[in-house]
C-alpha cells in the first residue's frame, strides 16, 4: 500500500495551560511541522479518525471511522464509536478519547489493534500535564514485567479529520476479559452458594457524574472504618464496576459489601495477624505487596485512594489492581508531597488530612504485621535486582525517548501543544526543553530508589 506522508500546519488557537483560575495563554503563531522527512519505518503508529465533520463529545459516542497506519502500511480500517473520556483531565485542551470498535452494521465487534488481544473497548490517553509523555506507559510496562496485569499500551500519533492532535498512549480499557482482568463473569441468576463469591470488580475512585463525591446506595457501599488521620469526617466508598450498578443484584451487593466489611473488621481486630481469622483469610497478600511497591516507587499522589481497582474472583480472595492512572506520579504533582522523593505515598492522609478522597486504613495496619513487612522487603530486594533496577528503568525511558525523537513525534506534539516551559496543573517541575523534562524524570527515579532502599528496611 502507498506510504502516506503528512504535513502538519498548526494554526493559531486559544490554549489553556492550567486550571484552578490559572491565566489563559493565547498562542498567536504556530510553526509548521512536517513528518515528510521521517522514514515511514520510524514513524509512530498513526490513528486517523474521521467523523464526517461531527464533534466528539463527552457522551454519547458518535459514529466515526478509524484507520491505523503502521510503518506506512494500513493495518486497520473500520467503524468506531468515540467519545471524550476522563475526569479532571477534561479541563485540558488535548482530550483523551474512549472508543469501541464496530462492524459494518455498526455493532460492537472484538478486533486486534496493534497486536493487542481482540476486544472492542479501547482508550487513546492524552498526556498533557505529563510532559515526559511516558509516565503511564512506563508504570504499566513495569507492572506487566513483574507479572501483574496492567493495560497494554503503545505510543501513537492521532489525527482527527486530518488535523494532528499530538502524541497519545493507546491502551486497553480495564474490564473483565480473559486477556485483561481475567475473572469469572457473574451472572444475574448467580445469587447463592459458591456462584455468589465472584467475580467482582470494585473501585476506590470519584463517583461518575458532575458531582464527583456523590456516592449512593445504588452505585457504591461505604467502609465501616474511618480513614486514618482524616479530620473532616471523610468516608471511604467502594464503587461497583462489574457487575455495575445497573446489573448487580441485591444478593450480590450484600455479599461483596459483607466480604469487604469482614476483611476490614479482621484487619482492625486485635488478632489481625492470625493466619486463619485475621486479614490473610481475606486477601491475596502478594498482590497487595506488588500494588504497594508500584505505588511507592512512583510516589503516586492519587495512589491507594483514586483510580484504585480491586477484584474478587469466584472462591478467591481479594486482589489489588490492576494499577491505573499514574500521570501525576514520578514527581509530577506539586501538592501533598507528590513531588517528593523522601515521603511515603501511603501516608497521604497525614499530609492532606482534609482532602475529600482519603486512603483506607489498610496500609498502615498491614505494616504493623512483621510478617507482611518481611514479605514486602523480600519482594523489594528481588525487584531491585530485576524490574526495578536503576539500569532497567533508565533503559526503558531511554527507549521511549529514542522512539519519540526519531519519529519526530515529541517535536510535533509540543509544537501542537506548546506547554514546554509553561506551568500546567499540577506540575512541580517546569523544564525549558523536552530533554529537561526527561532528565528530571530520570533523576527523580534515581533519588526515589536511593531513599526507598534505606527506608524500606525501617518499616
From TrEMBL:
Keyword Secreted attached: no
Q: Which InterPro entries match?
A: Spore_coat_CotH_CotH2/3/7
Q: Which UniProt keywords apply?
A: Kinase, Transferase
Q: Name one Pfam family in it.
A: CotH
A single Gene Ontology MF term assigned here is: kinase activity
Q: Which domain of life is it from?
A: Bacteria
Record-linked PROSITE patterns: PROKAR_LIPOPROTEIN (PS51257)
PANTHER family the UniProt entry points to: INNER SPORE COAT PROTEIN H
Q: What is this protein called?
A: CotH kinase family protein
**What is the species of this protein?**
Dokdonia ponticola
Amino acid at each position: 500500500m502507498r506510504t502516506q506522508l503528512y504535513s502538519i500546519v498548526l494554526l493559531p488557537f486559544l490554549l489553556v495551560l492550567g486550571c484552578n483560575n490559572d491565566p489563559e495563554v493565547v498562542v498567536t503563531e504556530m510553526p509548521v511541522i512536517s513528518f515528510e522527512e521521517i522514514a515511514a519505518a520510524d514513524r509512530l503508529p498513526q490513528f486517523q479518525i474521521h467523523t464526517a465533520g461531527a464533534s466528539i463529545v463527552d457522551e454519547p459516542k458518535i459514529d466515526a471511522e478509524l484507520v491505523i497506519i503502521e510503518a506506512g502500511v494500513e493495518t486497520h480500517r473500520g467503524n468506531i464509536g468515540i467519545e471524550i473520556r476522563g475526569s479532571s483531565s477534561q479541563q485540558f485542551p488535548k482530550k483523551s478519547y474512549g472508543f469501541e470498535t464496530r462492524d459494518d452494521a455498526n455493532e460492537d465487534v472484538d478486533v486486534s489493534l496493534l497486536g493487542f488481544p481482540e476486544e472492542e473497548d479501547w482508550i487513546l490517553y492524552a498526556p498533557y500535564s505529563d510532559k515526559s509523555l511516558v509516565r503511564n506507559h512506563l508504570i504499566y510496562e513495569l507492572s506487566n514485567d513483574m507479572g501483574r496485569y496492567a493495560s497494554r499500551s503503545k505510543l501513537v500519533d492521532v489525527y482527527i479529520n486530518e488535523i494532528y492532535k499530538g502524541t497519545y498512549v493507546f491502551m486497553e480499557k480495564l474490564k473483565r476479559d480473559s486477556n485483561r482482568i481475567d475473572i469469572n463473569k457473574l451472572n444475574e441468576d448467580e445469587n447463592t452458594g459458591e456462584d455468589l463469591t465472584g467475580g467482582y470488580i470494585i473501585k476506590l475512585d470519584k463517583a461518575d457524574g458532575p458531582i464527583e463525591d456523590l456516592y449512593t446506595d445504588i452505585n457504591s457501599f461505604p467502609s465501616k472504618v474511618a480513614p486514618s488521620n482524616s479530620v473532616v469526617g471523610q468516608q471511604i466508598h467502594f464503587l461497583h464496576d462489574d457487575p455495575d450498578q445497573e446489573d448487580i443484584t441485591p444478593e450480590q451487593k450484600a455479599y461483596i459489601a459483607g466480604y469487604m466489611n469482614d476483611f476490614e473488621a479482621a484487619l482492625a481486630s486485635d488478632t489481625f495477624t492470625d493466619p486463619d481469622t485475621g486479614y490473610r483469610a481475606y486477601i491475596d497478600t502478594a498482590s497487595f505487596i506488588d500494588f504497594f511497591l508500584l505505588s511507592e516507587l512512583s510516589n503516586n499522589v492519587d495512589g491507594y485512594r483514586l483510580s484504585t481497582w480491586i477484584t474478587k474472583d469466584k472462591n478467591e480472595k481479594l486482589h489489588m489492581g490492576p494499577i491505573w492512572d499514574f500521570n501525576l506520579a514520578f514527581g509530577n504533582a506539586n501538592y501533598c508531597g507528590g513531588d517528593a522523593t523522601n515521603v511515603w505515598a501511603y501516608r497521604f492522609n497525614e499530609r492532606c488530612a482534609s482532602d475529600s478522597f482519603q486512603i483506607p486504613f489498610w496500609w498502615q495496619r498491614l505494616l504493623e504485621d512483621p510478617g507482611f513487612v518481611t514479605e514486602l522487603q523480600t519482594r523489594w530486594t528481588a525487584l531491585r535486582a530485576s524490574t526495578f533496577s536503576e539500569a532497567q528503568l533508565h533503559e526503558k525511558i531511554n527507549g521511549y525517548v529514542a522512539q519519540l525523537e526519531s519519529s519526530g513525534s515529541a517535536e510535533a506534539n509540543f509544537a501542537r501543544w506548546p506547554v514546554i516551559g509553561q506551568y500546567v496543573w499540577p506540575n512541580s517541575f517546569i523544564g525549558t526543553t523536552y530533554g529537561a523534562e526527561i532528565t528530571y524524570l530520570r533523576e527523580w527515579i534515581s533519588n526515589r530508589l536511593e531513599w526507598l532502599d534505606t527506608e524500606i528496611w525501617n518499616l
